[in-house]
Sequence to fold (286 residues):
Amino acid sequence: MDNLIIDRLVKKYDKHTALNDVSLEITPGMYGLLGPNGAGKTTLMRVLTTLLPATEGEIRLGSVSWKQADDVRRITGYLPQKFALYKHIRVEEVLDHVAVLKGVGDRRREIETILEQVNLTEHRKKKMGQLSGGMVRRVGIAQALLGDPRLVVVDEPTAGLDPEERIRFRRLLRSLGRDKIVLISTHIVEDIEATCDRAAILHKGRLVEQGSIDRLGGLATGKVWVLTVPQQDFYEVAEAYDVIASHRLGDRYRLRILADTPPPGAVCAAPTLEDGYLYAMRRDAS
Ligand SMILES: Nc1ncnc2c1ncn2[C@@H]1O[C@H](COP(=O)(O)OP(=O)(O)OP(=O)(O)O)[C@@H](O)[C@H]1O
Fold:
């Protein structure tokens, strides 16, 4: 299986540079794209799905070049951030419609297989307006999978889902990456941690870091501290240090702190992906 090669990609909107010299090699499997609002994630996804042309740079997947948009569309599936459809259309009609647009050969068989895969077979006759948020996202994934794409692009996969739906949708995403490149863009670190093997971090249009989830978490090794303080000391500590999480334990707070040197009384903690992400963002901003 080929890697997706993104080579010195630049995307400008008039004078604003939304993607600035981004180079990435993305291996098959689940790949995360992390970054705060405005980092350029949606822009990158739109360029990858040919909705926007690149200003400079090249993208290739095997013999397919992004200079030939028609070829790219044949091998890509996309679940946009706002996947809204007519409320009166049935699930199977939505899929049939997309299958026609994608030129799928045996539509009936492929739709059946995909409905099974996303666990919607029993809801196939329901109208879109009758579905929960999680089910709508599953229809979104189903339509992205039609035509057996080599690259599937998913923007903000769990936005608007309740916690249970989120967990179920993550499990579904996890099952997709066996024979495809599945690119997931989000600012929710847990989505990436739960679904991806590797990830890249974007900030202000630039690539800040990339690598395995372990490597990205490891960026914060020796920089994460846990400190338990009485309630009344909370604000003082929060002013002096970069507190990235806090949990209340009775009348005390357990604080997670990002710092190069240990705060007095703090214990060093093993970093998570979120710690590595925050560390990389702070480092990039300074
Ligand atoms: N059509 C446009 N015209 C001008 N500037 C734009 C346009 N679309 C996006 N931008 C700008 O480009 C930058 C990147 O936006 P983009 O939507 O790609 O970021 P993002 O990481 O997806 O953020 P979000 O999670 O908020 O969607 C932002 O500064 C944004 O304001």
